Amino acid sequence: MAGKPCQPLFRRRARRAPGPRRVASPPLDLRDHIRDVPDFPQPGIVFRDITPLLLEPAAFDHAVDLLAAYARPLGVDLIVAAEARGFIFGGALARELGVGFVPARKAGKLPHETVSVQYGLEYGLDELQVHADALTGGARVLIHDDVLATGGTAKAKTDLVEQLGGRVAGCAFVAELAFLEGRRTLAGYDVHALVRYEEP
Questions:
Q1: Would you say residue 6 has pLDDT above 60?
Q2: Which residue, 81, 85, 134, 169, could crosslink 146 as a Cys pair with Cβ 3.0–4.6 Å?
Q3: 85 an active-site residue?
């Protein structure tokens, strides 16, 4: 006897009505909560560390509010974010918007059938995967990560979404290292960052 066809996990659902939010006073500057760490992960690199932002509830809340303000007019159905730091803001943003969250993970981490894409790094190739039933054709998707650097990881996520028939509505980041020209890699997509660093 034939079984029932497999149904995708994605379902359109009503947006969550925005609730009362804390208002920071005085206004927060997110740069004050992003720490520069010299020579990490190797000499000559200044790492932008968002963990102080996560430690301060008002700053974290403010960042999610700003990301949601960008994403809400786009009418997205899903947030796609990659491990690991992208999960932190991506999950919070999905809850704020009342939409689903799709984790993009390294190869071998997801338990069900996956689709994958390889992307280049300065030292070789890496790979991201999402579940094959994570979204249906026509779903409007917001790509998210904590930092936009060269854009390779973000472009891999756009490729995964489009492989599955989804539409990339926009790409949102907490911080952008503009001097690495990640926007060029994402040419053709709407890109938004809360904080931009013009110089290393």
A1: no
A2: 85
A3: yes
Q: Residue 60 corresponds to which tokens in the numbers above?
A: 């974290």
Question: For residue range 142-160, what is the model confidence (pLDDT) as tens digits?
Answer: 999 999 999 999 999 999 9
**Catalytic pick among 11, 122, 184, 198:** 122
Please check whether the domain covering 30-105+134-197 is classified as CATH 3.40.50.2020.
yes
What is the separation of C-alpha 53 from the centre of its chain, rounded to a whole number of angstroms?
17
Distance CA 148, CA 150 (A): 7
Which one, of 104, 101, 83, 85, lies nearest residue 93 by Cα?
101
Q: Would you give the end-to-end CA distance of the chain in angstroms?
A: 63
- Is 16 part of the annotated catalytic residue set? no
Q: Which pair of tokens denotes residue 176?
A: 């952008």
> Residues 8-34: pLDDT tens digits?
555 555 555 555 555 444 578 999 999
Q: Catalytic: which of 72, 85, 95, 183?
A: 85
Measured distance CA(41)–CA(170) in Å, rounded: 29
